[in-house]
Design a protein that fits this description.
The protein has ten helices and ten strands. It is of the alpha/beta class and 289 residues long. The strands form two sheets. It has a six-stranded mixed beta sheet, with helices on both faces. The protein has a four-stranded antiparallel beta sheet with strand order 2-1-4-5. Bound molecules: adenosine-5'-triphosphate. The site of adenosine-5'-triphosphate has 10 residues, from helix 1.
Length: 289
């Protein structure tokens, strides 16, 4: 896949297959290569229209295992639409999505075991405490009771929700950031291999943000892959090793952070690829009183 304005993307898989098996040789004497590992997430031509208007237009993306990809783009660019199709929550008009080689739409149960998802505007059962919600979620996911209990306690502790749990706070009473954190806990509970998180840092306090970053780094170091969407360019630059820029439903750039930045900042690349509008002097003049 290649972007515009000279930003050429790599799929992350080209030339990155597993190393040749030690000592193994083909009959011709050439080293035998193990089959190239599947990308952690591979989107090919994902397309979706709403009322005749393309929200996602042949979105293709390949995310390698062990990587953390930031998906950025203007409001209404098609990020959420693409991510929801990628994880099996929105049926595409065309295209495919695979998680570690498993087709999300053809083999949904298998794919969903591999996927942890924090959707936009997550709707949670609200008349439960966070702990009760995670217990219910774990059992729905087929985890045994002991595993569910142990992971629930650990997630509540790490995400600093134990106090709310001890006070019996219901999810409906949670703050926006707490809701985000319990949503993350539901995404992590079944130990997925691929995390797709729509704006995970939004409304999360700085201390919890550090915890989240540590979780994501540990997750990718163990070979899992993460895609996050975000509007915060410095955050993406600090956190992600790969970036995709999407605008008007199309992928405009995709590659390593260095490839997409092309020597400038990510914000500069974003503005260059997406365009920007200056406000005319007379606009909103009435605000001045
Ligand atoms: N269910 C829907 N029905 C109709 N139009 C929709 C629906 N969902 C998304 N759209 C439209 O599709 C386009 C892409 O929306 P999407 O939510 O994917 O953008 P986004 O990049 O996630 O935006 P933001 O950064 O503002 O969250 C927008 O024009 C939006 O109005």
């Amino acid at each position: 896949m290649s972007g515009v304005n000279g930003v050429s993307g790599t799929t992350g898989t080209s030339g990155e297959g597993p190393p040749a098996t030690e000592g193994a040789r083909s009959p011709e004497g050439a080293p035998v290569r193990a089959p190239a590992a599947s990308p952690a997430l591979e989107l090919a031509g994902l397309t979706k229209s709403f009322q005749g208007r393309r929200a996602a237009d042949a979105v293709s993306l390949a995310v390698p295992p062990g990587s953390l990809t930031g998906l950025v783009g203007p409001n209404g660019a098609g990020k959420t639409t693409s991510l929801m199709m990628a994880v099996g929550l929105l049926r595409p008009d065309a295209g495919t999505a695979r998680v570690f080689g498993v087709d999300v739409w053809a083999r949904p149960e298998e794919a969903k075991r591999l996927l942890g998802v924090l959707p936009d505007g997550l709707a949670l059962p609200e008349r439960l405490t966070g702990g009760e919600l995670l217990t219910y979620w774990g059992l729905l996911r087929g985890l045994d009771a002991d595993t569910t209990r142990a992971r629930t306690e650990e997630l509540l502790r790490v995400l600093e929700l134990t106090g709310a749990e001890e006070r019996g706070t219901l999810v409906i009473e949670y703050s926006t950031g707490m809701r985000k954190k319990i949503g993350l806990a539901t995404a992590l509970l079944h130990a997925p291999r691929m995390l797709v998180l729509d704006e995970p840092y939004e409304a999360v306090d700085p201390v919890s943000a550090r915890v989240l970053t540590a979780i994501l780094r540990r997750f990718t170091a163990a070979g899992g892959a993460v895609v996050i969407s975000s509007h915060v360019m410095p955050l993406v630059e600090q956190l992600c090793d790969r970036v995709a820029i999407i605008a008007d439903g199309r992928v405009r750039a995709d590659g390593t952070l260095a490839e997409v930045r092309g020597g400038g900042t990510l914000e500069e690349a974003f503005v260059r690829l997406v365009g920007h509008r200056e406000m005319d002097e007379g606009e909103l003049a009435w605000l001045g009183g």
